[in-house]
Amino acid sequence: MPSRPKGRQPKALDHDSTALYDIPGPKTERRHRLYGVLSTLLVLALVGWILYLLFDTDQFTRTKWMPFEYKGIQELLLRGLGNTLKAFAVAAVLSLALGTLLAVGRLSDHRPVRLLATLFVEFFRAMPVLVMIFFIYVALKMEPLPALVAGLTLYNGSVLAEVFRSGINSVERGQREAAYALGMRKTQVMTHVLVPQAVRAMLPAIISQLVVALKDTSLGYLITYEEFLHAGKLIASNLDYDLPFIPVVMVISPIYIGMCMLLSWFAQWVSKRQRRNPKTEAADVAPAEPGTLLPGVQ
Length: 298
Hints:
Elements: H1 26-56, H2 62-65, H3 71-106, H4 111-126, H5 129-138, H6 144-169, H7 173-181, H8 186-216, H9 228-236, H10 245-276
């Protein structure tokens, strides 16, 4: 039997291997390592250039960072952060409720209800959020917080309605037909069959839209709502501290990013708990055994 030539031995394929692409060879692996090193150097060079510009424009001087040492400034930022979270919490709950209501309307068997819900969704989904907030604040003369929440609710609720409708329609049609064949009403089919299966598909899109709502709360400073960005603007425009705009951005931006990441992690936690829920897991079926198949049959 001819012996196997010496050199690189072929890798054994396991269940994780894929047939969609070839296993990279030695030259390809070296090229990929080179690309990784060059990309890392490019990122480090970009970070170094940004730091150079910040130091060159005196953005790390004590005068610009002094405001954050005062208790009044810290309380202003904390109060603004609390107002941001309050507006987001109210807008998120109302958006989910409005999205559910509109999705039910779009899935209705009654044509007038379906047409009305479609017109509502398409109109408010196409309207800019800032225009809606200004219109509610100026034309309807509402307070800053209700105006901000109403604008966010109308826009995000309309987008979530499409997310809910698409998620429910993505469930296999046979599931619906089987439920109707068992004599279930439409409400029972929706709540017990379609929605539980659609939640997994909808969850990433729902969280993404809630992140958008969280970031859009920053539009409240344009109507004098004292949220987080409004507090940062007051600090950044202070002439006594040489207009510390960049330091304010460097403090506020990580907090916004951290809140969005916490929201994403919460979604992953909910998704994992849902997968471990016994109601969503497949039930074990005992193997068939010889025995009586029909009552009265010996």
